[in-house]
Amino acid sequence: MPNERHGRYYTALLCRPMNLPSRLLAAQLFVTILVAASCTSTSTNSGPTTPDSSNDPAAASNFTPSSESSEPEPLPDAATSTIDDTPTTPTESTPIPVIGLNDIPTLITRWGNADGEPLELARQIIGFPLEAAPPDGSTPFGLSVTLDGQDADADWTWNWNYTAIAAGASIGDIGAELPEGGPGTIETRLAFEPQLNALGFEITDESTSPSAGSASGQAAIFTFEYDSDTYRLGEINAQPVLFMATGDSDLDAELGGTQAGYGLQAVLEAQSNFIPVPLLESLFREVPVAPGARLTNVDFRSLRRPDTDPAATEGTRYFELRYDCELLPNSANAAHEVYSVGLEGSAYQVGSESADQPGFIEATEAAVIDGVWTQPVIVLDRYPGEITVQSGPDGAVSSTVVIRLEPNREPLMPISG
């Protein structure tokens, strides 16, 4: 495979403390990487949410975005016509688009409006590592990426998922009793096999399963194997673990819907202290380093809330992001200082939106809530979040950063005086 380097945000990182899959594809068959949070934190949610399965930068604030803003560029469409069994030479996907801090609000707004092709948004928002697109006419439905880095002596495991509603919200029937699994199974294979063959993947297993949360829906699941022990991930070699493509006759059943669609999952193991998702890396490097901080988990997922939710004015399609870190034993007091005073000049501001003056940020001191030190923050001048520090009876200390990225959030103004 080509060994050329690309992706300027694919940089090896020294861990910093921080913090939040869309609905997993045919969850009962998918091999998923469950990310166990290393600590308990207080949620910033203001109402019930359901997993899926952005606005100008601030003009008057303490944070000034970098000048390297760029409009997201559409990615090439992949062919999804017929299966070609001619052997192909594995090729490397186009580099993940560079995403800076000042690009994030636009991307979050685009997601909230379902504005863009599913693959384009998956590549830009979660850094999906394969250029494989659902059939033309599909619309974005769910995104997620998680990291399991709990074992300090092991490689990190990254798990990406993205789903899309099919054109017309329907695909052909799927069922193990039908010839070749039914027309929906054939459609799914024709959609993804040629694209993944061209990237060096071959189908190793095919199955059907009931759609998650559905009484009658069925999912066609194809498992692929990469033709090498290494997969080029940005600037490093990663180890392939799992690649799946799915067609689901009731993709949004867990949200009470009956829309059909498609999904892709990729799981890779890579060296620790390397974040292959530019959006996550750009937010992570803004948090000051607490004593001995080591990143252990990341969970970034799209969520849905009903129109009747009081928080729906901020958007019904949004994201939650969580970073967890281990800190040095008995370092809680030092971490409190870092996560309050140390935030000055970063994309994170100590404070919350004023209840008395909506649209303005007011300074909010940290408080101990249920035994957990909690500092409210505003991220990129608009998104609510919090940083927490937890201490265990054995002296163990961990930190969590949680951010809620909602598409209708406008920049907040500082309260004068």
Mean pLDDT: 83
Number of domains: 1
Please tally the β strands and state the result.
18
Radius of gyration: 21 Å
Helix/strand structural class: mainly beta
Helix-strand sequence:
EHHEEHEEEEEHEEHEEEEEEEE
- SS field, number of helical segments: 5
C-alpha end-to-end distance: 59 Å
What portion of residues belong to β-strands?
25-35%
Query: Biggest β-sheet, characterized?
Result: 15 strands, antiparallel
Residue ranges: pLDDT <50 for 5 or more in a row? 1-47, 53-91
Please state the overall shape, judged from the principal axes of the Cα atoms: globular
Residues in helices, as a percent range: 10-25%
Provide the descriptors you would attach to this structure in a database record.
417 residues, mainly beta, 15-stranded antiparallel beta sheet, three-stranded mixed beta sheet, 18 strands, globular
Description:
The structure is a single chain. With 417 residues, the chain is mainly beta. It has one domain (50-414). It contains 5 helices and 18 strands. The protein has helices at residues 104-112, 118-126, 183-198, 278-284, 332-338; strands spanning 50-51, 139-148, 156-165, 201-210, 218-226, 231-233, 236-248, 261-270, 294-304, 317-327, 348-350, 352-353, 360-362, 367-369, 372-379, 383-391, 397-405, 413-414. A hairpin with a 2-residue loop joins strand 6 (231-233) and strand 7. It is globular and about 65 Å long. The chain starts with 49 loop residues before the first strand and ends with a strand. The relative contact order is 0.22. Mean pLDDT is 83; it is low at 1-47 and 53-91.
